[in-house]
Amino acid sequence: MHKDIATPLRTREILEKYGFSFKKSLGQNFLIDTNILRNIVDHAGLTDESAAIEVGPGIGALTEQLAKRCKKVVAFEIDQRLLPILEETLAPYDNTTIIHQDVLKANVREVMEQEFSGIDDVMVVANLPYYVTTPIIMKLLEERLPIRGIVVMLQKEVADRISAKPGTKDYGSLSIAIQYYTEAETVMIVPKTVFIPQPNVDSAVIRLTKRKEPLFPVISEDFFFMVTRGSFAQRRKTILNNLTSQLPDGKAKKDIILSSLQEAGIEPGRRGESLSIEEFARLSDCLYPYFN
Ligand code: SAM
Hints:
Blueprint: H1 8-18, E1 30-31, H2 34-44, E2 50-55, H3 61-69, E3 72-77, H4 83-89, E4 96-100, H5 108-115, E5 121-127, H6 133-142, E6 149-155, H7 156-162, H8 173-181, E7 182-190, E8 195-196, E9 203-210, H9 221-231, H10 239-246, H11 254-263, H12 277-291
């Protein structure tokens, strides 16, 4: 039996052997606690018939635990210096493929078609690079990939915003964008001490389970997201004032915005943070004909 990668001792041995130095700009904070990794994998509900996509395998700590649990793992890693390390650390696992690419530029759908033929259940599982968590999650959701969901470690503050409910200080356009596609829950809070180097912020693991259908289907998703982003442009402003300043030609169309709010049953003096996703969907559809 070989030793798990994610122990402080083995991780240091590997890093020293290759003279590896962490790049802060790539969000390199590696996990050194095998129990935490197993917990993350547990939350993904994988079986030996499942596949996993990982973003940023580092030296393979999470990749190893995924490889033990499912049929196939594909991991995207941007840092070329990690490739020879991964070749050594993952040598015992012939069900892993490393792709040397920035995940934001990758054709993930095509990779899934090539690597996961005959596999129906696919989860994204990762300890994300913190400088780029939101763009990665949004890419994976907006591309409507055939995945069941996403279980990822990220900054606790971002996890709080993603899973926030209306009327709370954390609720905003990010909560709406992600909850529109998924059911979002924080499943673990993770201390700084289980990483090297330790990050400056607290961490959490969230599970995003994709909805079969969007929460409240809208005429145009692009316009719906424009309305939600515009409604939170200045949190202290009313929804009427935010939309007037944010929508194209909003000032000239103030009366239309006012009547659309009334048609959607939304009092114009409310603030964006008090509106449910259903109310935003209704409002977006009422406004749509006048802005398109
Ligand atoms: N999975 C490892 C672990 O848990 O110990 C490492 C996680 S570390 C937080 C993030 C990893 O993502 C690093 O290996 C980093 O090089 C990689 N990375 C950063 N930006 C990336 C990108 N745009 N595409 C793919 N990988 C990226």
